[in-house]
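## Example record

The block below lists the input lines for one assembly entry, exactly as stored, with component labels intact.
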Amino acid sequence: MTRIKTVDLATTSGAYYAPATLAPANTEIMHVSGQPGSTSGGIVPADYESQIQLALTNLRKVMIIGGATVKDILKLTILIVNYDKTQRKHTRHIQKFLEGHRPAITLVPVTQLAAPNWLFEIDAVIALPSTSPSVPLQLTIDSAEKTLDVIIVGAGLAGLTAATELQRAGHSFIVLEARDRVGGKTWSQVLPNGEQGVIDVGAAWINSTNQSRMYALAKRFGAEILEQNTTGKCVLQDADGNCSTFEYGELPKFDIAIARDVARIRDMVEADCQTLDPARPQNAEWDSMTFEAYLRARGASAEAIATATVWTRAMLGQDPKDISALYFLTYCRSGGGLLQMRSDRLGGGQHLRIRQGTQLMAIGLSKELPNGTVGLSTPVSSITQSGINSDVEVVTTNQKKYRARKVITTVPSPVLKTILFTPDLPPSKKLWSESSTYGYYTKAMMTFREPFWVEKGYCGLTQSFTGPASVIRDTSSLPDQKYVLTCFMSSDLGRAWAALSTPEREQALIKQIGQLFQSGLEASRDFISMVTYEWTSDPYSGWGCPCPSLASGVMDSLGGNGLREPFGNLHFAGTETAINWRGYMEGAVESGERAASEVIKELTTVLARL
Amino acid sequence: MTRIKTVDLATTSGAYYAPATLAPANTEIMHVSGQPGSTSGGIVPADYESQIQLALTNLRKVMIIGGATVKDILKLTILIVNYDKTQRKHTRHIQKFLEGHRPAITLVPVTQLAAPNWLFEIDAVIALPSTSPSVPLQLTIDSAEKTLDVIIVGAGLAGLTAATELQRAGHSFIVLEARDRVGGKTWSQVLPNGEQGVIDVGAAWINSTNQSRMYALAKRFGAEILEQNTTGKCVLQDADGNCSTFEYGELPKFDIAIARDVARIRDMVEADCQTLDPARPQNAEWDSMTFEAYLRARGASAEAIATATVWTRAMLGQDPKDISALYFLTYCRSGGGLLQMRSDRLGGGQHLRIRQGTQLMAIGLSKELPNGTVGLSTPVSSITQSGINSDVEVVTTNQKKYRARKVITTVPSPVLKTILFTPDLPPSKKLWSESSTYGYYTKAMMTFREPFWVEKGYCGLTQSFTGPASVIRDTSSLPDQKYVLTCFMSSDLGRAWAALSTPEREQALIKQIGQLFQSGLEASRDFISMVTYEWTSDPYSGWGCPCPSLASGVMDSLGGNGLREPFGNLHFAGTETAINWRGYMEGAVESGERAASEVIKELTTVLARL
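Predicted structure tokens for the full assembly:
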């Protein structure tokens, strides 16, 4: 609900900022001092884009403390040292920060700022939202019949795992799910045109060794396991679109110096991420930089940066310049390291698939819960805590009210912004929910009549610096005689592809697949259908997938454990809060177990006191 | 009553500006154009700090016309040409300007401004105070019994002199004094520990030739006169802390080139100040500069500037960079010139003391007034003029109301800010009261068992570039066998000394006295006690002493006679408004006589018309 009006001329409506903005009458106006790109501890990274991200994080912190959000900004003034109009690197970060909001902006190139190492500074004028509650809560809300022990928000793997644990411990609960189905970001769809088998439009892979929770669930619900194919040639498409092959597990055939540099950077990222405590990652210097700045500071070659871009795009839909180096290294560390997380082999992140689709486990878990304990199509609109010894009230958008001693929310962090918390979430939690963003990330499952790539000696795994697909994997199901290449479109390449019409998208992928596997003819001839789902448009996933990322400066402000710390009687789960396999199904289950155990412990303590 | 709220993070509350400020809803917002450092006549001094002061004066003028004060500032944007972060000279002046208020600030280094000689520019966003009166005047105020001819605000020497004149002319009057004593900045205290004699914590010196008013008063009330000792060696402590002696009336033993330059600068200041009309000083160029810029523009050596710094510190508690050159030259001129004002000999500013203390005269004057005409502990809160032919109403903080045809205020200009004037004071008067500031200035009277410095051939006068005391004078009273060195701590050196604990302050002065007089042993052994009074904490003196100073650009705006021009039926006295011996007791008496004569003349004219 934005209250800032823009003034637009005929020629300006396409710009990401407005010629003028209007503050409503009778509004508190906030003036923000120039915010430089330094961490709260005073670290000023040498990298320009890292400074932009930190400055925006600093602006966001001030806005949160002042009670405003991005939508309330009237005016930004941007000060840039050594401004280069051919680059305009700030626009990417500011557009992302603004989330479509269009304030007035003035850009002022300067030769220096208040400190000699500052390259970027931003100040703002902001119209505060009115302090009277904007949601009339007391209209026609059904009163809660009784007080439950726990309300769980979200019936994905985290929420259903928590429910299962609570059920086992004998506590009363209800799971409130916004969607008309369980499973969250696991969603297995039947193929169009009556084809056999299912397609996972969301999470797809598990493994059998270090993802023991998921593997146990899969076994328990009778999953038929499909092993990812790593036999055959892999393909690299370079920045000029030329394709070359390499063996799975080896590096692409760069020239020797480049190969050595790519290996050096890969090994360095691996070593650095292993230094982090996955439960309490802390490194203020790494958090002060974007991942790209971290790579450049270590002298990474263009090819090494392109390779790292394939990693961040395939793993998070982000470019290295869009995310904190500490965030990416922590993300890798949570999956056992960069190499393990990216591996399709035993113990790797993409080792095993499930023939029936990964939604099988969520459906299985929900069926084991008592009738009436999972409410579908019940989005939560507000969560009110009156005091640590009072019940928590949860109200839904369809005007139902629930009451419980504890609440576990499992929603992705961007979704927290859509819930009215009373009292407001603490500043560090707000900073998390307001700063975390998904990159652009879409899977397109391309089904073919024949696995022509296998016949030509390819395993199906490709990586491309040119796109549209950054990475492709074979997700066929041989028992179903279903031959599928899952194409991952992400970040800028993905956005360009998404702007095409559906036939154009199909053709672009068919063309790329033809180039990659030297199979232009077969790719056209054998193509059956393309299945995609735009998580970017899904409000209940927080407008994206697989996992939100954090820009520079946020983790430093959150502290090592800030994501999963409870707030009063409110507990936080969801794969983002996991210690291990963050962003994966395994992490979701781990987080559900952890939140349930927090809640059970506190409920038991309270009972013991009574 | 500030209404601007600040938004602070955990790390920011110590900064002199705030990360963000909030304007209340439903407030008029004033946007101020960039204010450069030029006079109203368009003079732009070459000196950077002079431009800063002028720009701040210009900003203050706009705020006054717009109805705002410093406390209403939401945001400052500071534009600086050739910004040097190792200097940051602007912070001193802006902090002083802000008086503790913390707006949001953005600093923008630029390569040039709108005119090629502008080095500094400041713009502002300001939330206007609401226009409804903030003081509920009509509550339980006693109504005035009768209309007096004159109400005098302040029972210092100015107010009591005016009262004496009105009494003599047969007019009815009352003197309203905020303190529980008469005398204002003359205050004579008995010594602690039962020592004989009194100590003047305020004004101390008069002379017998060109301070005829004070000398006459002293004689009239039986003052025993003590002559300042100028026999013996004086001491200079240089920037390295080394001490050397020189004869009273001569220059310290600088090397020849330096001595010549110090003499040149001294003589130039003397000659320049003599060109001024003390009643209507006007020189737009000198008012456009700080006194330091004036010295530098004339090629003053470092030692000459250090010497001039001893002058401004000892005379006003200010550094040369903090005050207008015209203001300082006018101040000197009012005392007959720099040399006379600084002299301890016949006709000089520090020639004679009074054994019973200088409060003797105020007490004497007040005792000659009719019973009930001096109201102590009666601070004035508002002065209301309904029209030139109507009575003036004066209300006190203890809810008493007085009515008179005329009011004479004698309060120091910073105190004018604490009184609610209706109608508001005219802009030039507001500029005076809001711009005038005291420097840091404290006297510490160090009493000793023996005058060891006299025994070693010193007169007791010292000047120091290192401090803590910039200047020391012998203020012994031989008839009382009281041996005292009065130490003047001022400006930055004084602030550093004031931050120490009382024992540390004593020790610092004992140590310096030991160094200056080659008497480390005696200074420790003979020390009895230290007496100080912090005028900086005294609201009724306007938080300082001896006399407020004006920054660049204010006198130019006030006009040559602006301080003492009446406003309706309101007349202005006090030593600041004196033509001669401004800042001295003599000036206070002169101003009281002048204001009384203005009032008597107008009252007589009105009577003649009736």
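Confidence is low (pLDDT under 50) at residues 133-140 of chain B. The domain at 188-230+439-540 of chain B is CATH 3.90.660.10 (Polyamine Oxidase; Chain A, domain 2).
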